[in-house]
Amino acid sequence: MPTARFRFWPLSLALATALTGCSDSQTDSGDRTAQAPEAPEYPVTWRFALEEIEGSVQHAYAEALKERIEERSDGKVEIDIFPYGSLGTSAQLTELVQNGSVSLAFASPGHLANTIPEVGLFTLHYVLPDDAEVTREVLASPQLLGLFEQPYARENMKLLGFVPEGWMAWTANKPLRTPDDFKGQRIRTMTSDMAEEAFKAYGAEPSQIPYSQVYSDLQLRKIDGQSNPVFAIEEMDFYEVQSTMTLARPAQFVASVVSNLDWYNALPEKQQQWLNNGLDDVAQIAWETQEELNQTRLETMLEEGHLKVVRLTNAEREVFRQASMPVRDIYLEHTGDSGQRIFERVQQLIEEKEANTPE
Ligand code: 6CS
C-alpha cells in the first residue's frame, strides 16, 4: 500500500490568492508596501516558497538559509518557509515571485524553460561533466550566474543561485538500458517543452505533468516512468509504483533560487548584505546535503527491496549521449544568439574547471 506521505492541496489556491498583492517586506505591524521601506520597521518577514516537501534538499537549503539570515540580522529578518503543497505548482510559484507575492522561491529550469528558454540548458543530457567536483564548481561560479542574470531579469526575477540536487535517475517498470527501451514509454517530464525533448530523442512519448500529480499518474498507469534525483524518488514514494530505477547519470537536477527583481533592488543595503552573505553561507551546505540525502535514500529504497536498481556502464551511457546530441540543436533553435553564447561559455567553463582539477 502506498504510504501517501504527500497528498495535495485543497488550500493552496486560496492561500496563493490571499498572498497575491502582498509585499514580502511586510512588517509585524501589518504594513504592506510594494517595496522595502526607507527606514525599515523590524522585523521584516520574507516568504520563501519551495518546489519540494519537508525533508527535501530544497527544504534543508531553506532551513539553513533561514537560520543564517535570522542569525546574521539578529532577528531583524524572519523567513517563513512554504514547502510544496502549501502554495501551488512550480509554475504557480514562479508567478507568485514575478508578482511579488513571495520574496524568495525555488524555480527549477525543467519547469521554467518555457518562460526563460535559456535555462533549458539544464534539461539537456550529458552536457555537465561526470566529475562531481567540476560540476559543483561550474554551478557555483559567479560567471555562470552572470550568464543567466539578464534572462531572469527579463522576467522580473533576480537569480540568486543554482542549487544542484543530484543526478537524475530514471524509473519505469523495466530497465532502460538503451534508447530502444524508451520506445513507446510514456515518460513524465517537468512542465516545459525543452524538458520533453530529451526523452523524445530516445523515442519516448513524454508528457509534462506537475510534480504533485506524478505519483497518482504512475499508480494509475497513465504514465510508465519519470525522471528525478534519487532522494525525490524516495520521498515522493515513486519507488512504490515503479519496478526499476536506471542510473545513467544523464544530468544533474539543477534548481535555481530566485527573488522578485524589484523587491531585491529595493531592499535596504543591510538586508541585501544579509541575504547575499546568507546565500554564500549555504552554498556548500546544500551540496553536502544533496550528497547525503541521495545516498541515504538510495539505501532506504534498497533495504525495502521493492525497487530493482540498474547502473549503466560507460559504454551504455555513451549510446545515450550520442542519441541526446540533436537535442542541443533544438535548444539552440529555441534560444538563438543568447543560448548559443551561454552554451559555448558553459562548455568553456567546464573545460577550464576540468583543467584545474587534479585527476
Ligand atoms: O520533478 C519535479 O517536478 C521536481 N523535482 C524535484 C526534485 N524538485 C522540484 C521539481 O519540481
**Helix percent band:** 40-55%
Largest sheet: 10 strands, mixed
* Helix-strand topology string: HEHEHEHHHEHEHEHEHEEHHEH
**Radius of gyration in whole Å, from Cα?**
20 Å
Number of domains in the coordinates?
1
DSSP, total strands = 10
The CATH H-level homologous superfamily:
Bacterial extracellular solute-binding protein, family 7
Report the span from N to C terminus: 47 Å
Can you tell me the CATH architecture? 3-Layer(aba) Sandwich
Number of helices: 13
Bound compounds, please?
A: ligand 6CS
Strand proportion, as a percent range, falls in 15-25%
Kindly report the CATH topology.
Answer: D-Maltodextrin-Binding Protein, domain 2
Question: What is the mean predicted local confidence, pLDDT?
Answer: 91
Shape estimate: globular
Low-confidence stretches: 1-14, 20-33
Structural class: alpha/beta
CATH domain class name = Alpha Beta
What topology emerges from the helices and strands here?
Layout: H1 12-19, E1 44-49, H2 57-72, E2 77-82, H3 90-98, E3 104-107, H4 109-112, H5 132-140, H6 142-154, E4 157-172, H7 179-182, E5 186-189, H8 193-200, E6 205-208, H9 211-219, E7 225-229, H10 230-235, E8 244-247, E9 252-260, H11 261-266, H12 269-304, E10 308-311, H13 314-355
Parallel strand pairs: 1-2, 1-3, 5-6, 5-7, 8-10
Antiparallel strand pairs: 3-9, 4-7, 4-8, 4-9
Helix pairs in contact: 2-12, 5-13, 6-13, 8-13
The structure holds ligand 6CS.
